[in-house]
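Troubleshooting log. The previous structure file for this entry was overwritten by mistake, so regenerating from the original sequence record. Sequence copied from the archived sheet and checked twice against the printout by T.R.
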Amino acid sequence: MRFPTFFLVTSGFLLACFWKACTPAVSAAEAAPAASSKPNVLIITTDDMSCDSVGVYGCKLADTTPNMDRLAARGVRFAQAHVVVGNCMPSRNVMWSGRYPHHTGIQGFDPLPREEVKYPVLGELMHAAGWFTGIRGKVPHSTPFVPFPWDIVLDTNAEGKKVHIKDAPSYGESLTQGIEAARKAGQPFCLMLNVSDPHKPFYAEGNKGQTVDDPHVPSRVFTPEEVPVPGFLPDDPVIRKELAHYYSSVRRADDAVGAILAALEKAGEMEKTIILFLSDHGMPLPFAKTQLYHHSTRTPMMMVWPGVTKPGRVEETHMVSAVDLLPTLLEMLNLPLPEGMDGRSFVPVLKGETQEGRDMVFKSYYENSGGQITPMRAVQTKDFLYIFNPWSNGKRVMSGATAGTPTCRQMRVLAKTDEAVAARVDLFDHRRPAEAYDVRYDPDALTNLIDLPAHAAQVTILEQAIEAWMVKTGDPLLDVFRHRQDAAYREQWMLEREQNMKKARGKGRKADRSEVEEDGEMKDEAAPKKGQGPAKAKGKGKGTAMSTAQAHAEAKLIELTLPERLVPGGQAVVKVAHHLPADLGTQPVQITLKSAKNERLERKTLHLRGEGVSEVTFDLPAEVPGGAFIFAGLVGENISTALQHWQSKLVKVSGE
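Regenerated output below.
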């Protein structure tokens, strides 16, 4: 008898089927069940998708996710599931290590040196136990160190051609390719397919949110008039337009899930497959992604375990966390649990049993993709959410992946004449040291109850719970949490950490413009030294012939002409002269606007070939911390393979 294939489908969420990078807690022989009993493992993730964007999770827009809805009907749908972190790489590393970020070492977007990873992750445990491992998409975000020696990387098709991350049908082809490779190897498979949607860029969304031609058309395209507006955002035509792009991208993600499930069925593995589906965090718009609000972390988790889970069951009683996934999966596969994990298995819940201690989840955030640290901790029950923000001092502005969106820019425009929107923008920028929300009646987190006497008892209970959790897990925020009422102490604590970050970067820390970014790219390198010009590729050694890519890197493939005058709240037009040799074909050229602290504010991508001059236009924020901006240009998909990278010095704004 062949036992179920294990299939994980996660949104922006990868089952890190790592090769062994450090000594496992048990040997492969001890860990592996009998060969005949090994199920396959397949992971599919969607990226940046809010839970309530899925039909069966109460989406107010009809027909968004028919394939995800059908998947939910096959197994258990968790109504109270949360991820730990509101941004990509740290969230995924929690999932596949069973450890909180302050234990994984991945609190932001810095991969660790391989030798520093002292704990096993799911992928390497699976490999050691005899599974064939593979991945498509989000490769640098799925493991604590890179590169990782997967058995197969499915970012190219069977002919060796790179597949587009927004091509929904290709995800089914990738699954077929992975299954065939595992069969040739004579092993059960552990495959991760990470669907890029609805991560930005959204379907057909160009500069400043305007609609552009997009060859990767979803099976249904939604209009601004029909889409719902989340309660945490104002209802405005500009915002509706961006939401229409978002929901169309959700539908395209669903198309990819449909292609994967069809390929699984065709391969004859559907009835032998355990399926897990969830998202890495909420939508990439203000008050969702890079935050710890209810809609930031609530995830559409579904699991199908043939012969165990009841089809169509909705689990509403127990709260489960992404930190619990590794111990759960290992128990499902009859593999021993490594020591040191923070999570615990919820297999009893999958079997329909009651499990004590599942009445709250803990959440964590530390650093954005640009390297800004804004530490946060949260605890949430089914009824109440408490958030601690030690960085908040009324002046420090939090930057993040959603700050440059058309929605955020429009909120700043509306704030000039609308006091309610102005208050929301102020909260988005500065937050408060502590926040509390009744998520039963206020899931959009609109009313902060932290100072209301009627809720003091509930706040105290959650403060005690999060302090106990900090003590148990050795959280480095414990001390500042215990001094949370002391504004001067909080500020000194933050200044010390900001200074430590600067010192680390000065010593060549990987995060110094080389860390992995949320959208699968690499962070820009440090600005070139005076007179250096565009970055040059280094040869492999003295006397080594220069490769074609290195030769191109020596040439000036792009030259940027910056605006002579920058005005806060105005626009900046950057001219891009490109000189791309014929053998390069069409290349992505990324132009980035950054803050004076080198944090990314907005990025525009052009697709250029040959000779010519193009333009990109940035809408400048009305407030300019540091009184200056930085502009950067990059030729290629990411910094690790870039043909050229250039970054300006500080460009001061007028009147500052």
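The radius of gyration is 24 Å. Archived copy saved in two places this time.
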